[in-house]
Amino acid sequence: MADHETQRITDVEALKVFTHPLRIKLYRALSMARTATASHLADQVDEAVSLVSYHLRKMAEHGFIEEAPEAGKDGRERWWRLSTELGFTFRTSDFDGPEGAAVAGTVIRRLVDTRTERYAAYLDQQAAWPDEWTDAAFSSEYVPRLTSAELQEMADEIGELMRRWTDRGRAAEESGDTAGREHVAVHMYGFPFRP
């Protein structure tokens, strides 16, 4: 059964799993599907089933995903789910040395790239969405002057807010309230900079 916590990555070998862009795509696709087979995911990412199976096994080796045998009907297909419903997190300070810094930097850049691709795809398709969705969509930037402790406090508050909304959506879905529900990507970044 998937855990209701966020998985904190502190091992560089585990973090290396996400240096491959296909694994990030598969992880995201599995997150939206909740459970899926390699065949289902291969269709979504337009890759061969054998390649998808290989990458799923690599993610499973490090505990990011797990088998979901209860999802299968006949036992012949291998079903997968995320190990934690709330995904993973990591801090660059957990990875010492040049290798750790390089791996963390690569994963962060890959995540940003895929987020940018997703948002650009929305912008390209925006005219096809009903007004109620385009009016609700947002893109904001704020520039407060904070200490590192205040930035951490803000990150914790935003994380709690997103967990609350994620739980609300899942509870509604589990109760059968699916009308009008869509996947919603919320991308937020908080980082220091000097003008």
Summarize the structure.
This protein has helices spanning 12-15, 21-33, 38-45, 49-61, 97-125, 131-136, 148-174; strands at residues 7-9, 36-37, 65-67, 79-82, 88-90.
What does this structure look like?
This protein is mainly alpha-helical. About 50% of the residues lie in helices and about 10% in strands. It has seven helices and five strands. The strands form two sheets. The protein has a three-stranded antiparallel sheet. A two-stranded parallel sheet has the order 1-5. The longest helix is centred in the middle third of the chain and has 29 residues, at about 95-125. The N and C termini lie far apart (about 45 Å). The relative contact order is 0.12. The mean pLDDT is about 90.
Topology of this structure?
Layout: E1 7-9, H1 12-15, H2 21-33, E2 36-37, H3 38-45, H4 49-61, E3 65-67, E4 79-82, E5 88-90, H5 97-125, H6 131-136, H7 148-174
Parallel strand pairs: 1-5
Antiparallel strand pairs: 2-4, 3-4
Task: Give the overall shape.
Answer: globular
**Helices and strands, in N-to-C order?**
EHHEHHEEEHHH
The percent of residues in helical segments reads 40-55%
Q: How do the strands line up in the largest sheet?
A: 2-4-3
> What is the CA-atom radius of gyration, in angstroms?
18 Å
Main β sheet profile: 3 strands, antiparallel
Features of this protein?
single chain; 195 residues; mainly alpha; 3-stranded antiparallel sheet; two-stranded parallel sheet; 7 helices; 5 strands; globular
